[in-house]
Write a structure and sequence with these properties.
Length: 278
């Protein structure tokens, strides 16, 4: 059962995360239609779905059903299977869909194995995020550290550590914005408080890759409101296994707020966000 997950069981989950993230990542690059269009919209006219979001999720779901028939699945494009084992796979078939639509090489497949209730309290125990354009695969399992593997001719494995920066004023800060216009107006308002207090802001367009950038020290700190479980399930474990902290307005990240980075920067940024909201 999940509480007694052995090192071997965690290793198996991490391997599946890695293999499936790469498999789906290769699919979305290889079969990206030359004239990719919008198949559908979700929460707003700019919250788009492409045919490849659906195909990627279908591929992930088929493999998980075959390899892990007792496990649950929660996916951004609607996959919803209840868990009989205590493990649920939380998957984002393309994180950074707008980048994918515009052929901007900052999108990823995110696969995480989680314990608990995906509609309530849950914990990621293994995860992988694959950017199929750069060939970068970020991965972690609980207690095992976080790693970046590059594929291709120059393959390498690097252990990840969050930034050593301690001053918020020097911190390169990542964030993102939701798809709802009112929510975006609030996020822009909060940003006017954050921007003067940090080195600069980056909005790369994929929360999963933003979290991995924090784990790799490419961003000092990151915050966003409105994230769904699939945006952050793998990335948040990769941050904590790289020595960082992930929290929300309270101790746990939530849809209201996700903050990630070295503890000292996360706390300083949390203070700024709290006073900005008052
Ligand atoms: C989005 C991206 C984006 C973040 C949004 C997410 P999607 O996911 O992660 O960076 O700012 O909050 O919804 O729609 O590309 O899967
Ligand atoms: Ca996403």
């Amino acid at each position: 059962m999940p509480e007694d997950l052995s090192l071997a069981a965690l290793g198996t989950l991490e391997t599946i995360c890695r293999e499936l993230a790469v498999l789906a990542g290769e699919l979305i690059v290889r079969e990206r239609p030359a004239h990719l269009g919008v198949a559908d919209t979700k929460s707003s006219a700019t919250d788009v779905v492409t045919v490849m979001d659906r195909r990627s999720e279908q591929l992930l779901q088929e493999h998980l059903r075959q390899r892990r028939p007792q496990d649950g699945i929660l996916g951004e494009e609607g996959a919803s299977v209840e868990s009989a084992s205590g493990i649920t796979w939380i998957v984002d078939p393309i994180d950074g869909t707008v980048n994918y639509l515009y052929d901007i090489p900052a999108y990823a497949v995110s696969v995480a194995a989680c314990t608990g209730d995906p509609a309530g309290e849950w914990e990621s125990v293994a995860g992988a995020v694959f950017n199929p354009v750069t060939g970068e695969l970020f991965h972690a399992r609980r207690g095992g550290g976080a790693f970046l593997r590059t594929t291709g001719a120059e393959s390498s494995v690097t252990a990840l550590f969050v930034s050593g920066e301690r001053e918020l004023g020097q911190a390169l800060t990542g964030t993102g914005f939701g798809y709802d216009a009112d929510k975006r107006a609030q996020q822009a308002q909060i940003l006017t408080h954050v921007l003067p207090q940090v080195r600069d802001i980056r909005r790369a367009g994929s929360a999963a890759l933003d979290l991995c950038a924090v784990a790799a020290g490419r961003l000092d700190v990151y915050y966003e409101s409105g994230l769904n479980a699939w945006d952050r399930a793998a990335g948040q474990l990769i941050v904590t296994e790289a020595g960082g902290v992930v929290r929300g307005a309270g101790p746990q990240p939530s849809r209201d707020l996700t903050l990630a980075g070295p503890a000292v920067l996360v706390e300083a940024l949390h203070d700024v966000l709290r006073s900005a909201a008052q």
